[in-house]
UniProtKB/TrEMBL annotation:
Species of origin: Aerophototrophica crusticola
Pfam families from the UniProt entry: LHC
Membrane topology classification: Single-pass type II membrane protein
Family: Belongs to the antenna complex beta subunit family.
Protein name per Swiss-Prot or TrEMBL: Light-harvesting protein
Primary localisation category: membrane
Length: 78
């Protein structure tokens, strides 16, 4: 770092050589793309399982399921 600050330019601010920096950048980009693709697939699967935007009946359609779950929970707990 001192070489860079003194203007010699033999090393970079990160301390990596040009080859190491390119290799790191390539790994970073591939990892970011893989993470993004996994996130897209996960969001699609969750949307297929339980959409988070209500359908034509709105959230009223969820009330029956919630009532059943509450009745079951109160029966088991009390």
């Amino acid at each position: 770092m001192a070489d860079y600050a003194q203007g010699r330019g033999d090393s970079s601010l990160s301390g990596l050589t040009e080859t190491e920096a390119r290799e790191f950048h390539q790994i970073f980009i591939v990892s970011f793309i893989a993470f993004t693709l996994i996130a897209i697939v996960a969001h699609f699967l969750v949307w297929s399982w339980r959409p988070w935007i209500p359908g034509p009946n709105g959230y009223a359609a969820l009330q029956d399921g919630v009532k059943l779950a509450m009745d079951t929970a109160t029966t088991l707990l009390g």
